[in-house]
Amino acid sequence: MSVDLKTVKRVAHLARIAVSEEDAERMTGELNAILGFVEQLNEVDVSGVESMTSVTPMEMKKRRDVVTDGNKAADIVANAPAAEENFFLVPKVVE
Amino acid sequence: MSDLTRLTISQARAKLRGKEITATEITEAYLSAIDRANPALNAYVAVTGDKARDMAKASDARLVKGEGGALEGIPLGIKDLFGTEGVHTQACSHVLDGFKPRYESTVTANLWADGAVMLGKLNMDEFAMGSSNETSYYGPVVNPWRRSRLDTVVMPTTHQGDGGFVSAGGTKTQRSLDNAQLVPGGSSGGSATAVSAFLCAGATATDTGGSIRQPAAFTGTVGIKPTYGRCSRWGIVAFASSLDQAGPIARDVRDAAILLKSMASVDPKDTTSVDRPVPDYEAAIGKPIRGMKVGIPREYRVDGMPEEIEALWQKGIAWLKEAGAEIVDISLPHTKYALPAYYIVAPAEASSNLARYDGVRYGLRVPGKDIVEMYEKTRAAGFGREVKRRIMIGTYVLSAGYYDAYYLQAQKVRNLIKRDFENVFAAGVDVILTPATPSAAFGIADEDMASDPVKMYLNDIFTVTVNMAGLPGIAVPAGLDPKGLPLGLQLIGRPFEEETLFQTAAVIEQAAGTFQPEKWW
Question: Given B367, B392, B452, which is nearest A12 (Cβ)?
């Protein structure tokens, strides 16, 4: 499988990365080189093989459902590019 | 006073405990070495001198009272991927500009609890994506090793007396260093260079596809990626969560064992951290390997592999045989599919992990006319080319209609890769010996690598299988190539049998010796 310019632009939008016409063209070539490389996986017979879900056989650890942390709103917004009264500020979302 | 930066961790530990030196002295020695070398090598992206001095002072106070921890007063460098409270933590990406976490990663917290001193944050490929440390927003790291050539030098002719007698002085050979700058490998290139160039006693690193072992091999240092789940991933910037593992880069096998003992823990904050006590890895060093079964996988003999890599491998086999190990030929039939499967699984996980860099909660923000444009412009400006490439691949393989063909297929192949190893271990093989990399360090801005991303990816061909199967792997220096550059061998073990790796790596180290670059910086 390979991607065309239109697909690259669509994927860039899905990934929320602005691309110029020139970027998109360059990326089309690069992505096709990588997709060409991974194509060889199709020759592997995977019938009856499960998809890997956990690399180490282990049971998912569960925590007790109790509050163990919190009251650190100031810490959480401390690195925000724009914050006010412990809220993150973003451009208007709803008109 | 001899140069304190030349001491290994075990030597420094003895001198600190014996009160022959102080933590402050050794910390100052490293800080001035960094000061002199960093402009040439670019290993550190942030030096935390004041913090280092404070930590050293506190260590000295504990050492005086005889209360020192396992790493008391040992100055370490920390890869920029580890969250360090109040200190530069940017995964060497522009998108995390100015980020100073309000928390400390579990691994670094373990090191400080054992008394280690933080010298600063180390350069790396952006978000750990790269094999040459050239994708860093802070520029490439330079390998302290340079190629050298053997020149035949004609000795100067000497005139003797006034009889006009001229003696042809004869010839001698001498090594001269080439000026070309080489990469230290990646993504933990800053860690590898800093350890190899004596700019820290040891360093933390992380390995998703080979990012500890490949740079260790390129710089003549020892690097171990432990079993998935051995070190907590809590507080480490995530790249591909099912593959990421932290581990140390050190000057010798013993130092790597000392560091891993402190870094590893059982952590309730990471659900993939495994509930097993951390053994005393150092105790495994020096144990005989007589009777151990060492597997040699035939699939690791790849086309176009340089002669010196094959020769190194044979040397490794001979050393282990001499030490009494039994050498067996084995087959890991799905080896060649590990790298292509990795380049689906890792970008898929990365595209999801890196979705959080949106210009809202931390780091860079580039304004836009609405929120979507702000996201798109922020991410376009904040991520470098390689990171964008991987996010795009990941987004594509996870998108509707392609998920089964790519992602599901890759996760099934991954199970087959893991099964290959399980079969070999079930047949009684204790450890697997392979080359660590398909070549020695290459040049900065290598044209072949730059023109084709897949060429760069092939650097990880011998290491990536280990991440796909969640196994432990260690790279240990085993010799120099004809140009005088270090080469490494890799040992792969059963899950949670890091002790076997240290035990076997120590045998290789004993036979090969250790390697230091000639100082030019």
Answer: B392
